[in-house]
Amino acid sequence: MDASLYTTLQETRGTAESLVRQLAPAERRRMHHGDLSPLLWHLGHLLYVEQQWIGERLGGLAHDAERARLFRPDGLRKSERGERMPDLSVLSESWKEWDGRCRALLAAAESAYPGHPLLARDFILRFLIQHHGQHVETMRQALTAYALNEDAGRFVPSQPLAPAPLSARYRAWPGGPCAIGSDDASSYDNERPAHTLTLPAFAIAEYPVSNAACLGFMEDDGYRNDRYWTHEGRRWRDHTAAGSPWHWRRNAQGQWYGMAHSGPFELQADAPVAGICAYEARAFARYARARLPHEAEWEAAARAGLLQGVGQVWEWCENRFYPYPGFRAFPYRGYSVPWFDGAHSSLRGASACSVPSIRRPSFRNFHTADKRHIFSGVRLCRPLYPMH
């Protein structure tokens, strides 16, 4: 067992617990967004997952059906989870007790099962670090929703955001073969197997779309102009009455500002816009006479060093989430297979709230097109025109 990996796992557990502690006890049990579980559930779920994979799968511990019902994603409905959660003090003690057992179980498993696929190249530790880190990001989404719900609209930015015309600078990818995916020890099954694709030439924006450019879109009637929106996008827009990114708010003076899990903040003109769904991203692309990139184009451009500003927002791609040729589910069918359903779109990159363990060119995120609480933005793409 790589001791540094186990230390990283401990640190990620600690981050999750610290996020729960930011809320008052009653708020830890509440859903602050319709898609997001209470923070206490996330902390209990992380413990359950470790006990399932290390305790049950590798250590031979008995299955706990009640624990599974509480903390499996397909157990309780999200709306039922809060009232059934143990207090934070109980979960904290359970974590302390488990930490001591976990080390011993891993050491025993390495001796008993040399070459086990969960232990090879410390896969299980890498898997858990990434799994926990993704839940940490989701917990920060929930804290952002809580901050939005509590916002009184009194924040006054020192430098109000002003609109700017779109002025994307494009970088050319000349076409040809490119490496896609990864077989590294940390890669998820949907990133495997690594393979080569041949892509036609394209041009991709060097930076994601900025806050100032998004405000220009808004003030140019972009949210109401139907010609920028697909049929599904118009239905979503009309149903939600969306007219700005998810975490933007406007004060009594008409000034826009942002809301993060840590509270209100000034929207920097050049910073990537975040909090937009795929429908909004596609509308902005049409407005800009561009399109969204296919995720293979995004990865090719990232590997070629053409992209700047990666890792500040998740970047919507035009394609649906799909399995690579030769895909094999691992370590369980439910991580990726259910989402190859034609309803989930791919996203690439990472957000400012993402953990380091998933910041790689091959990492694939996936959500339905209506999700905008996921710190997502947009990078433009277009055919490669002759350059003069």
Strand elements, count? 12
Runs with pLDDT <50, length 5+?
Answer: none
Spatial strand order of the main sheet: 10-9-8-11
Reading off the top of the CATH hierarchy, the class of the largest domain is best stated as Alpha Beta
Give the topology string: H per helix, E per strand: HHHHHHEEEEHHEEEHHEEEEE
* Biggest sheet record: 4 strands, mixed
- What's the CATH topology name of the largest domain? paralog of FGE (formylglycine-generating enzyme)
Q: Indicate how many domains the architecture comprises.
A: 2
**Percent helix among the residues?**
25-40%
Radius of gyration computed on alpha carbons:
22 Å
User: What shape does the CA trace take?
Assistant: globular
Estimated share of beta-strand residues: 5-15%
Structural class: alpha+beta
User: Mind telling me the CATH superfamily name of the largest domain?
Assistant: paralog of FGE (formylglycine-generating enzyme)
What distance lies between the first and last C-alpha atoms, to the nearest angstrom? 56 Å
Under the CATH scheme, which architecture of the largest domain would be assigned? Alpha-Beta Complex
Task: Explain what you see.
The protein contains ten helices and twelve strands. The protein is of the alpha+beta class and 388 residues long. The strands form four sheets. A four-stranded mixed β-sheet has the order 10-9-8-11. Helix 2 crosses helix 3. The mean pLDDT is 96.
Concise overview:
With 388 residues, the chain is α+β, with helices and mostly antiparallel strands. The protein is built from 10 helices and 12 strands.
